[in-house]
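Exercise: predict the structure of this protein bound to zinc ion.
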Amino acid sequence: MSLDTKIVQEFQQILNSNRLNHAYLFEGGNYKQRHELALFLVKSQFCPNLHDNLPCLECSVCQTIDLNDNPDVLEIKNDKRSIGVDEVKDYKKAMSTSTTQGDVKVLIINDAQKLTAQAANNLLKFIEEPEGQVLIILLTDSKNQILPTILSRVQSFTLSTDDQNSLATELSQQGFSEKNMAIAQATTELKNVQEMSDEEFSHFLEVTINWFKKYENNDAIAFIDVQSKIKNLVDSREKQELFWSIVEKLFSDELSFKYDLKKQVILGTDVNPNLTVPKLTQQIDSYLGTVQKWKSNVSFQACLESLTLD
Ligand SMILES: [Zn+2]
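Solution:
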């Protein structure tokens, strides 16, 4: 057993107060740790021998879940490059059949970063208006790879690894404020901020937020910012990745305002109250396309300029 005890405690509180949501995302740790945590949560919904709402892990019901032999627990697990909309539709259909073992139907999605945008949208509708009682658990390496529309609808938990823990300790020793640490942890991989001081991170954040505000308000200065402010700021691959991660979180925050989800991490106010959801979704799609281009080695500056002009 290698369950993250901190997360198990958090779930115990959630279960004790009957606040279980119907969609969760587990990121971080390794594949086995995430999967084990998912099954643990699933068992809490089926085990007949709960102790303080946590499953016994020993009874035949718990074991059946370990053996992937509970017909109410479905799992998407494929070796293909992507999880397409047809696959999601098939599983949704299977999820809408009646339960046989308990009151809830479960869907676990491994490698959720492989969901195509279309599949993700289809899944979203399901998360928003589930038929019957469902529990959907998405598993992924890093939530930075998950579409913000999905992120805004699920509650996510980060499994800690020794690496991340020691990086976090290092960062607080080098003077990272609690606020910046929380933003960094929710936004990016800590290796991307490892070389920065707290002041440098604050400055980086400020420049990125300013660019984003101008971009969202169609302010032509956003384009000038790329040359005058951002170019010199992002002088390494890590910093470029940090920039994209912050922008993604800003989009996600903006979306959170539109849906009144109160899940903002960085922004305190809606940067453009007049922006519609379809327009914002369109921007997020361009952003995702831009990051793909950057990943395939188009220069950072060219990518950001074309996004800004879009
Ligand atoms: Zn049990």
